[in-house]
What we know:
The structure holds two protein chains of two kinds. By secondary structure, chain A is of the alpha/beta class. Chain A has helices at residues 46-53, 76-86, 102-107, 119-132, 148-160, 178-195, 206-211, and strands spanning 2-15, 18-31, 35-39, 61-66, 69-70, 87-90, 166-170, 198-203, 214-219, 222-223, 227-228. In chain A, strands 3, 6, 7, 8, 9, 10 and 11 form a seven-stranded mixed sheet that branches. Chain A has a four-stranded antiparallel sheet with strand order 2-1-4-5, with helices on one face. In chain A, α5 (148-160) packs parallel to α6 (178-195). The two termini of chain A are 19 Å apart. The model of chain A has no long low-confidence stretch (mean pLDDT 90).
Amino acid sequence: MSVIKLENVTKNYMLGKVTVPALRGVDLNIEMGDFLSIAGPSGSGKTTLLNLIGCIDKSTDGKIIVDGHNINDLNDRDLTTLRHKTVGFIFQTFNLIPVLNIYENVEFPLLLGKREESRKEQKQWINYIIEEVGLADRMKHRPNELSGGQRQRVAIARALVTRPKIVLADEPTANLDSATSERIIDLMQKINQNEKTTFVFSTHDPMIAHMVSKVIPLHDGLIASPVGV
Amino acid sequence: MFVLLKIAIRNVFAHKAKTLIVGSLIFIGIFLMVLGNSFLDSTSKGIQNSYSKSVTGEIAILKNIDFDFSLFGTWNNIGNLSVPIIPDLEDTLTFLESHPGVENVTTVSSNILMVNTGETSPDFWVMGMAVDPGSYQSFFDITDTLVIHEGRFLDPGEEGIVISRYVSDYLLEYKGLEVHPGDSLLLNGYSANGFRIREVPIRGIFEYEYVKGDMYPMLPRTCFIDQQNFNVLNGIVISNENTPPPAEVEDLLFSVSMEDLFSETIVEGTAVDEVNTDLDSLLGDMTVRHELSKVNSFDWQWLLLSLKNKDDREIKAFREDLDNHFSKQFSSFEEKDILRPIQIAESLLDPQTKELQYISSLLTIEEKKNLEDSLRGMDKDSLSNQISVIFTSLLDREDLYKEEAYNEIFFTSITKNLVEKKQKDYELIRRNRLMLEEIYPYALSPGPDYMVSEWWHAASPMSSTTMGIQYVMNFALIIIFIVAIIIIMNTLIISVMERTGEIGTLRAMGGQKSFVFYLFTAETMTISLIFGTLGIVAGALVITILGNVGIPAAEGSMLQMIAGGNSINPGLSQWTILFSFIFMLVVGILSSIYPVFYAMKIQPVEAMRQD
Lengths: 229, 611
């Protein structure tokens, strides 16, 4: 079942009066439960592609369907709601809220919109995923009291707390050492298998490329032939 | 909602630089405001005390006049005008004395008098304040408000003047005149009725206890004088009023023949070396002179009231009530009522008989006064009827039918309008009102006869200048706050820019724009509330300390007048706190509007930026 579908998507940026094409006609189909990586060198358009999939940016042309919604048809409010319900983000620089402790950071997305679960269910779920990412003993700590790997694990927990269909990770291991990176990817893989959450990474780390089930190679805004397993 | 506040409050502590800059600005602003307002409160109370206790009472009443006025003369570009006497004073006094809100009533008049200091020296002016010694002494409690240096205050019914210490010092220093109680001053008065001179005995030398400062010379030059001398010097005598002099006076005046006045025998009989006749026989019969100098004891310019309740708002309410009372009593017409006499005028203005305007211009002063007297106090309908009766009777008077009556030059455009168009719309009549007023001088707009004002109006320009300080201080405060708002805004914008990634992250995770709005508004308001409250508390603390200790005001200084006593003891009113609190919220809101909208425009994609 397709959860993300891109048809001939282009994205241009304006640099002063010069138009810079970032994506030049991308067709992509991502299935539910995929664990895949968008790979390519700097400036190939990885982050742009991720932004469009994550509904935080709009394409110049083409059609993007996320979880059945054509995102070009949605206004800011509906897009925000769609992001809240469907997409989780993991950032290269973690982007945790510095004044909130670990528990509060993970809980935070739940407070941004209406939820169906009860408060009690939410609490259990938050505790469960914090335990899953191995930070049960750090719940009351602030982000600046944690190491880079720990922070990224908090970010993973935060991305998962709303039970999104898609988790987007923008170079999640770029700021981590290789041992930590491996553990992080392992963790995501485990969640992918347990929760059937779709994971899409952007990376130029060859190690990740070996660990995912599918790699989408991006070159100068175009997808070369996918490398599957 | 709770998470918003939690983040907001924690951010206040997390972003220390921003918090300190914004917070200290708000703290200082609110602190100054509490301080400033408390001082203004107590000083304006002090000024009010000084003047209402010593000079003006709480309410001052005078005849309705169309120029600005004060107890210290009337100052405009024409020069010094005299305030007219209050009409129907006797009835009004009776009414006010029995009024439940009134504590005390007194009457005063004031005008500039010249002190004659010898032929070679130019005259020296003083501010003559005619008082009724009996009611004045109890009204102002002069044992408290005046310091008598020599002699005493005037006694009821007594002739004399009580001069200020400033005047006696001035006379000694600049004119070489040493004066003490028992001496006399030669006073000159100028008025529309001519030049008068009187020799008035000095009874005492005084100084105001509370009202100080020589910024305005009228106050230190104020001298108390009896009504008889004051009124004569200012030409306020019975013979100058519109009523004809009593018959016996008229007889006396006309019994003097031209020959008596100008015959040469008198000149021959008063050769210089033969003057040994006494003064009385030289001046001749003084009866006429005395009759002409008779003063009506109800001729006063000002009625001063002290009220039982001296609260600002109560004084204002009392003034308005009294104003209404007098307006109802004396004003027979409002603008819409003009129509009625105009209709009468129209009916009278038959195209064939165009005499009306001519007749009104022929009325003598006496006839006009009679007309006014007969119209006053009537209700509207009987007044209208009366007007038509009077004018109809005038039309019947044969002596008014003269050839000139038909002269075209007397018909103004308005007369023609009225004649040519009997059915006119209201607008036209309204525009013609000014011209119609010539025809109906009394019926059209009699208005209230009295002007009721609060103490500060009667005390101006002195009080208004000191009160003007308030406006200057408020203006300065507003400037400070505008600058503060700009600095706060600037700081907040920088803070928002620094947190672009954080805002983008919030938006990417599903935070709506409104969440960003509430978050940043909550942060600014938290800072405003914390530091504003600290400012209020600090201000209140300082004011309480100052209020207990008191800021001493030097003897005779301007500060003493502002203080209304020997020290300023500022007090904190709940209004100051409330006003500061509201102001604090307004500053918080105003300074965060732009930064908050700037934050709301930040796109979720900013979360991905790495810088």
